[in-house]
Amino acid sequence: MRDVPTTVMLTEAERAELETRVRATGLTMSEFVRRRALGVPLPASAGDQRSRALLATALLRLGVNLNQIAHHMNAGRSEAFFLPQLLTDIRRHVDRLSRDEPGRNHHG
Questions:
Q1: 102: CB partners within 8 A, 6+ apart
Q2: CA gap 23, 48 in Å, rounded
Q3: Which one, 3, 19, 25, 63, has least CB within 10 Å?
Q4: Taking a C-beta distance cutoff of 8 angstroms, is the pair 47, 25 a contact?
Q5: Shortest CA distance to 30 belongs to which of 54, 59, 5?
Q6: Cβ–Cβ < 8 Å for 24, 65
């Protein structure tokens, strides 16, 4: 049970900025401050979650294309001319998904 209140003095501008950041996470003010102070990851914002879902869908589509190319090549046909670009796209999406992990502090 948390039973020790703590007071923090802020300017009006700092309080407004803090409230904006808190709203983006969906946490209470206390939970947000506690997590930030103790280094506990914050949940991804709704925008971050949508962005990750779009990237994951794009990566899935690229993977399907890669699977079709592998099937084509395993049947003895030549490499698809667009394979190098497809692999570059897949690497780019994986790198971005890895860089933008959920709960990572995006506000510094």
A1: 43, 44, 48, 49, 52
A2: 14
A3: 3
A4: no
A5: 5
A6: no
Sign of CA dihedral 39, 31, 12, 48: positive
Shortest CA distance to 30 belongs to which of 6, 51, 54, 58? Answer: 6
The Cα 90–Cα 40 span in angstroms is 31
**Amino acid letter, residue 68:** Q
Is the model's pTM score more than 0.85? Answer: no
Q: Which two tokens stand for residue 40?
A: 């506990």
